[in-house]
Amino acid sequence: MQSILNERKKLYDLIEFIKQNNPEERVSKAMKIMNKLLTNIKNNPEELKYRIIKTTNQTINNDLMTINGIDNLLYNLGYIATNDGNFLLEISDLNNIELCLNILNSDIGIYKEKEYVKETSQLMMENPQVRKEMELKRKKLEEEKKEKERINQLIKDDKEIRKMKFNYK
Question: Quick one: how far is CA 156 from the chain centroid?
Answer without folding.
Answer: 44
